[in-house]
Every structure is written in structure tokens, then in C-alpha cells.
């Protein structure tokens, strides 16, 4: 791993989610809450539409740093605060963009700050991964 400087972007990507993505995640996670696959239920509880699972969004965000990090065992901490839902449209789906930037670095660890957005709005804040440096 090269020398890290605060502000360096270490990874970035955009993930396209579809309703099929949500069904697959529901099966893998066991979270079959109908707000994640039925428009009528989502709207009946005041939501703007079917939402991506929060843990799916959180997981794809941290997965962004894995090619750079190389070993998930180097992750020491990971946390986020959910601020906005990711609405997954029936036909067009939803794009979630993640930018991973060095927020702090010392001799043994680095804090990677994740900017996670959808449709021009930040959906996770205080999304930070503390990693052990090689």
C-alpha cells in the first residue's frame, strides 16, 4: 500500500440496484419486509416507494474499499448513520455512488470516510471505516 494522505480517494464506484437486487438481498438476509418489494405497502405507510434495505446500502458502501484494502480482516470498525432512503424505481432502478476518501491516518491505522449518495442526495452520513494498515 502506498503512502496515504488525508483527502486521497482510495476507491469509488456506482452500484445499480434493481427490484431483482432487493428480492435477492431479502432472500439472503431473511428481511422480507414488504416495503422492500411492494409499492402499495410502501406507499400505505407514507414512503415514496419501494426502498432498498438499509443494510444492503451499508454493505455495498463498505464493499467499495475491498479491492483497495485487499483483506476484509484489516477492517477494525465500520459504522454509518442512515439519513435518507434509497428509492428503487420499478423500471429504472436506482444508482448508489460511493466515494472512499482518507479522513485520517496514523502509523498503524487509517480512517476511510465514505460518501454514499443516491439521486444527488447523501444517504449515509458518518460512514467511516477504520482499517489496519499493512
Whole-number count of domains: 1
Mean pLDDT: 96
Structural class computed from helices and strand pairing: alpha+beta
- CATH fold-type name: Thiol Ester Dehydrase, Chain A
Number of helix segments? 4
Ends: how far apart?
7 Å
C-alpha Rg (nearest Å): 16 Å
Biggest sheet record:
5 strands, antiparallel
Major β-sheet strand ordering: 1-3-4-5-2
The outline comes out as: elongated
Order of SSEs: EHHHHEEEE
Search tags:
5 strands, alpha+beta, 5-stranded antiparallel beta sheet, Thiol Ester Dehydrase, Chain A, elongated, 134 residues
Compose a concise summary of this entry.
The protein has 134 residues and is α+β, with helices and mostly antiparallel strands. 23% of the residues lie in helices and 38% in strands.
Describe the structure.
The structure is a single chain. The protein has a 5-stranded antiparallel β-sheet with strand order 1-3-4-5-2. It is built from 4 helices and 5 strands. The chain has 134 residues and is α+β, with helices and mostly antiparallel strands. It has one domain (9-132): Thiol Ester Dehydrase, Chain A. β4 and β5 form a beta hairpin.
List the helices and strands and how they pair.
Elements: E1 9-17, H1 19-29, H2 39-44, H3 54-63, H4 66-69, E2 75-82, E3 94-105, E4 109-118, E5 121-132
